[in-house]
Amino acid sequence: MKPEFDIEKAIAELRSGKDLTGKDGVLTPLIKQLTEAALESELTHHLLKDDELNRRNGKTSKTIKSSAGSFELTTPRDRVGSFEPQLVKKNQTHLTDEIDRKILGLYAHGMSYRDISAQVQELYGVEVSQATISQVTDSLIPKLKAWQQRPLDAAYPIVWLDAIHYKVKDNGRYVSKAVYSILAVDMAGHKQLLGLYLSDSEGAKHWLSVLTDLQQRGVEDIFIACVDGLTGFPDAISTVYPQCEVQLCIVHQIRNAMKYVANKHQREFMRDLKPVYQAINKQVAEDALDTLDEKWGAKYPIVIKAWRNKWENLSVYFQYPADIRKVIYTTNAVEAVHRQFRKLTKTKGAFPNENSLLKLLYAGIVNASKKWTNPFPLWSQTLSQFAIHFGERFENRLDI
pLDDT of 292-313, one tens digit each? Predict the structure, then answer.
């Protein structure tokens, strides 16, 4: 007979300052005793249903890690080897999900495997290897796949599209790969990350495949898409969503333009450029662009030409009131998501494979999206403006 858990001794140990859980915790002997008793019961039921020649055949021992601390668990065996314990399976080394949840929580905040191991050791008195942590975090991969394939809403008022780049090992060498992020505002005004897509490089051709995937997952209409200045991007969007209005990011356009302006002229050029993108309406903006051309066109013709060539997509936001303009004239919303990604990945110089990158970004976005509970400010007024601008096409999407 195994000694019963001594409750009086446990109380005395607690009073003396011994921890309830963790390394050598007061509860550890009780957890061990209950677990072993349950395994014995499992084997008893198994033998009642099994061949009458089968019987008990000794025990095996292994170290089990639990939130109450580590202990040696003895598991009973049967003679023919048909017994498969369910409470603690043959290859299982964790008794509860609590440590796994802690590992996933720390991982979702961007902690390195080494720091996660140290935290678990401090909290539970349990040593977990990097291989164990990797195995635990791999449980996110099926969830990631399901999330990437989930059905989406039929329509989104605003969608931001952008890419962020990481080094990923491919065929024995590290190469730069683009992660495409699609952030949207749904009809209720809440943010959603619609998907993460990985590609060898950022390009309009791959964006076309991303948009096609959105369509296949149920997205029938996008009213406004906010994107950077990637060549061919607006055409790719129009191919899949021909009625979508595409707004190029003003901030990206300014940054790209200033690369071609001499340092000694940049401050003055920026001052003259502001009346273009800060104009009260499109006509005033076009007049300001003409004025900019008159002053700087001879010196920087490439810059002026770039603004004129993209003007149709750069000026979409002038159709809307100031509150909506602030939301759609830059890709700041999705870039804020990318800033969260950079915090997560700052301890990682590169990634050994694509799954190791995507599972971390997925963990981070699940964690971040818990805060996306409130709709955009003044969303009801914004809906009214969209209804006026898009008419029945938008009204038919409202759940009223």
Answer: 999 999 999 999 999 999 999 9
Nearest to 361 by CA among 143, 152, 151: 143
The Cα-based distances of 175 to 140, 166, 203, 354 in angstroms read 24, 8, 16, 11
Tell me the pLDDT tens digit for each residue of 321-364.
Answer: 888 898 899 999 999 999 989 988 888 878 998 989 999 999 88
Question: Residue for token digits 């996110």?
Answer: 140
Domain assignment present for residue 146? The answer is no
> Is 72:93 a contact under the CB 8 Å cutoff?
no
What is the spatial distance between Cα 397 and Cα 399, in angstroms, rounded to a whole number?
6
Token pair listed for 258: 């200033």
Output phi, psi for 288, to 5 deg.
-65, -35
Identify whether residues 112 and 73 lie together within a single domain: no
Instruction: Compute the CA torsion angle 118, 121, 123, 124 (nearest 10 deg).
Output: 160
Number of residues that make up the chain: 400
Range of the domain at 105: 97-137
Q: Which pTM does this prediction carry? A: 0.73
What's the structural domain count of the chain?
A: 3
**C-beta of residue 310 within 8 angstroms of C-beta of residue 248:** yes
Q: How many angstroms separate the first and last alpha carbons of the chain? A: 69
Tell me if 177 sits within 8 A of 199, measured CB to CB: yes
Residues 201 and 102 in one domain: no
Dihedrals φ, ψ of 276, to 5°?
-75, -55
